[in-house]
Write a structure and sequence with these properties.
five-stranded antiparallel sheet, alpha+beta, Nuclear Transport Factor 2, Chain: A, disordered N terminus, 190 residues
């Protein structure tokens, strides 16, 4: 009976930690948007990159978006891919950063998925009701230190990891797994 109570408490704690991670990240991103509005673009990008690295599991995202081709890549190619993927994430966030400063985030529901995953559902709302609400689903898992990191984000049902994976695998398959071709395309597009 005591064991069951401890498991339920641990699950509840994990849900709260997952929710707290997302809330903290949103607050930091909003503060970042306000604090860096007058900085040079490169300086602003560097600051948002540090924020992103703090909250996402880039290793997981890199492996997940390249599938079985990841194992065939050299260590140098893996590092270059992670850097290019991070740059894509930075660009995507920077495109929406000014909007984030004027919108509000509302947590909706958190749930446990399997033994390790936490799903946090939320809504981006326009307090002035001029823009439609945006449904978000954050997928998180604890790292070795017990901190929760983001594995994926679905925006209105569209997964960032799945979208990137479809693009990366298409390029890799067309080029017989040539990671350099994928890297060239990613750096050219950025």
């Amino acid at each position: 009976m005591i064991f069951n109570v401890n498991i339920n408490k641990s699950l509840s704690d994990n849900l709260k930690m997952g929710e707290s991670t997302i809330q903290q990240m949103i607050l930091e991103a909003q503060k970042h948007a306000i604090d860096t509005v007058k900085l040079e673009p490169n300086e602003r990008s560097l600051k948002i990159e540090l924020l992103i690295k703090k909250y996402i599991n880039l290793d997981f995202m890199s492996k997940a978006t390249t599938g079985s081709f990841w194992k065939k890549a050299s260590e140098i190619q893996k590092e270059k891919y992670k850097a290019a993927l991070l740059k894509q994430i930075v660009i995507t966030i920077e495109d929406h950063l000014n909007t984030l400063a004027t919108l509000s985030y509302k947590p909706i529901k958190s749930e446990r998925r399997g033994k390790k995953l936490i799903y946090v559902r939320g809504l981006i709302e326009d307090p002035n009701k001029k823009k439609p609400d945006i449904n978000l689903l954050w997928k998180l898992a604890a790292n070795k230190n017990g901190s929760f990191l983001i594995l994926d984000l679905e925006i209105e049902g569209i997964s960032l990891v799945s979208s990137q994976k479809a693009e990366a695998l298409s390029i890799l398959r067309k080029n017989r797994g040539n990671f350099d071709t994928l890297l060239n395309k990613m750096t050219r597009d950025n």
